[in-house]
Amino acid sequence: MEAGRLINQGQAAGEPQMGQVYSGTYPAYLANSLQVVALDKTGAQMSNGEGRKPTYSACTAAFAPNLGAGGTTDVCGIIGSASKQVRVLRFAVSGRATAANQLDVQLVKRSSADTAGSSAAANLTAVAHDSNDAAATAVVTTYTGNNVNPTLGTTVGIVRAQQSNVSAAGSGGAATPVEFDFGTCNDKSVVLNSASEGLYLNFGGAVLPAGLVLNIFVEWSEE
User: Fold this and answer.
1) Same domain membership, residue 166 and residue 117
2) pLDDT tens digits, residue range 4-42?
């Protein structure tokens, strides 16, 4: 059996098996190609629960979101890529305000991306978890401004909604962070298949409490 030889799907039974010590790099094999089993450095079959797909994070701390006229909609979103399939793994938010309060937080998937409109848009820095991986192609954007919201893209639907309790600034009180995780229960992550699709942190048009600042992070993979 030659490594890399193409075999029709489902016809590998009975082929002799070989192993190759894993080098630590992420291979990109052709579909339906027959590859040797990966071994660890002791010669045992490789078993590694850590993902090999390029993974990235972007975050912001003490972020003052846009205050929409009559209420706030999208404040932060991850927009997909024209060259990669983007899988959103985690999206989290916590915060504080002048007085303790509650926020209804939701994630909205859109088939067309938001535009800044009258708000000010800024892209967060995407950090690769592995410095050997290429730069991220997805973009995480925040929106700021007084009495303005971004122009919203086309809504597919709300995929998550929870309440987050924000603490009073300077009180030392405990806030209640909200973290949305995907792909951890044998479910499919939220997949963005193009640069038009996005997943957005949204407050449903609610009037946000005075002095609100947010800590937000997004984690995703690209393939």
Assistant:
1) yes
2) 555 565 565 555 555 666 566 656 677 777 777 777 777
